[in-house]
Amino acid sequence: MDKHLSEEDSDNIDWDTEDELEIQDTTFSSCRDLRTNGQYAISGDGEASSSSVPGQSTFIQKFLVMGFSEESIAKAIEQNGENSDLVLDALLTLKAIEDSPEEQPSASPHLEPCINSDDSSSEYNENFLDDVYDEDSWSSDSDYCTNSVKQCYVKEESSSLSEKEQTILFLANMGYPVEEVSIAMERCGPEASVSELTDFIYAAQMARAEDPYLPEDVKPKLNHGSGGYKKRKMFNQLCKSKKPRAIFDEETIRLPKPMIGFGVPTESVSAIVRRTIPEQAFGPPFFYYENVALAPKGVWDTISRFLYDIEPEFVDSKYFCATARKRGYIHNLPTENRFPLLPLPPRTINEALPLTKKWWPSWDPRTKLNCLQTAIGSARLTDRIRKAVEAFDGEPPMRVQKFVLDQCRKWNLVWVGRNKVAPLEPDEFEMLLGFPKNHTRGGGISRTDRYKSLGNSFQVDTVAYHLSVLKDMFPNGMNVLSLFSGIGGAEVALYRLGIQLNNVVSVEKSEVNRNIVRSWWEQTNQRGNLIDFDDVQQLNGDRLEQLIDSCGGFDLLIGGSPCNNLAGSNRVSRDGLEGKESSLFYDYVRILDLVKSIMSRQR
DNA sequence: CCGATGATGAATTGGACC
DNA sequence: GGTCCAATTCATCATCGG
Question: How distant is C1' of B8 from CA of A130, in Å?
Fold first, then answer.
């Protein structure tokens, strides 16, 4: 697609472009937005790679690249030695002090934690603060994390400021526009940590950058490539490397074992779930968000933060069908009285693909397939496997068995003849994922595209199980806003549950996918209206208001945003949540917020 | 141009072991 | 604690033939 992307991915620092000016700019102006300014990229460990400046060690260079002055770096190294964490700590402290509007005595890089008084009265820059917040919407106590940040960064002289003022000051010193900090604090609430606030600000900037109705010169500069991700990662790393460590090590969301979420129909050990959903998260509408469970570190923490801190429900679809599919779901649906789709799908390879039973060797212990992906094994590979197995009468030696099994697991190969393995057919994909046969067949879609669309889809039985609680609640049918619809996994799930679809607004980039959904809609004789959009970014407030006006509001907002920058199979651009496609998650959040506010206004 | 094909690892987690 | 091993993973790209 975009050829230039690979160039952006480079870890090399391009000193010949205007980016250099921006870097120097950040050095001498205040420390501006670390994540959205400039185009430089830092490799994962913080080492600046390749282009070396004579006379400077890479240790110094990496701090120069971050925008610190040579003088400060030298000072920090002198005091702390060549320890990255300590030096960064010192530099950030110095930066906070330098950028502070008040006169500062020189301070040691490691400040003693200061005791913050709860006295919120201050004459300091009163007008400035008046613009920033309104007094009664905030309590005087802030959360532990925010507090500790200030203990680390803010000098004692500002301890007379309220918690909130200090947070604003801190973020302003980091280069975040005060207005945006203010908005973020209102939106995230008084309990929000600095990390949450910066996340929100970043998302807001990103959403604005993508708003097609904003003039170009108003948009913040964003880099959707890996550079932005790395800067962000670096920022998080900065936070995490601060002391006291325990406070910044926000607990990472862990995957449950077994991965059955809040319960599956097949396991007798149903997890007894009493979960509390924050009031803000209550509908209308109900919402349901999905993505890969095995995302890079911290991604689900971020996703959860943006979706009201709701705990993700991690479920492996191998408890529903014959193929694994480890996914996380965040939703505000009730979890009591779920029921599965009938008939129950086959749960083993044997049952799902009976013709393979005859050829299945005793030394292949698989009963479940691995995750169905977007590409299949090559003919050359199956040929190699045939030759390897053919060379022996009876059981091949362990060495060969291991090779064959490894490849079969990797590529989801099944036994279709004597010594013959093969990748799954597209219609087998459809069946395993719970779609009607030929759902993706014909109408101008290629075989390759079928694999791709199916590999990117929901497992219908899994999602339907979660959505089943809606059936009794909406006996007269539902209005559904379906984002990133793909081949219509959500629509198929609701339909198979017997839930009437009154109005479905479906947003899907791919034309072949839209055709598939449209075709399914007609074939199943739907009475309701199916409205197409091709781009989530075109769904702004005005358009949503129109849609909500015309259909009377949405009952369900459902969708799984692009996973390709999160998925383990991606060797090229696994850039995390800020990746080119996966960052569309923030549009899900944006649209959810818009729908909620429009609907609450109209009630 | 389109569609099919084959080559291309790393990140993460969990368990065994020391 | 640390270290190694095993398992898993909604993919991307250049290339080639029609």
Answer: 56
Interval A200-258: pLDDT, tens: 776 666 655 554 444 443 334 333 333 333 333 334 433 333 333 333 445 678 899 99
For A439-468, the pLDDT digits (tens) are 999 999 999 999 999 999 999 999 999 999
- Known catalytic residues of A are 563
Bases of chain C with protein Cβ within 7 A:
7-14
Q: Are A425 and A446 found together in one domain?
A: no
What is the domain range of residue A57?
11-247
- C1' (B4) to CA (A461) span, angstroms: 31
Nearest nucleotide, CA A290 to C1': C10
Is A309 part of a structural domain of the chain?
yes
Q: How far is it, in rounded angstroms, from Cα A419 to Cα A462?
A: 34
Does residue A465 contact residue A339 with C-beta atoms inside 8 Å?
A: yes
Q: How many domains does chain A have?
A: 3
pLDDT at A48 over 70: no
Q: In what order do the strands lie in the sheet with A286-292?
A: A313-316, A326-331, A286-292, A556-560, A478-483, A501-507, A529-533
pTM (two decimals):
0.66
Nearest nucleotide (C1') to the CA of residue A410?
A: C8
DSSP, collapsed to helix, strand or coil, labels residue A189 as coil
Bases of chain B within 7 A of a CB of the protein: 2-15
Distance from CA(A354) to C1'(B12), angstroms, rounded: 34
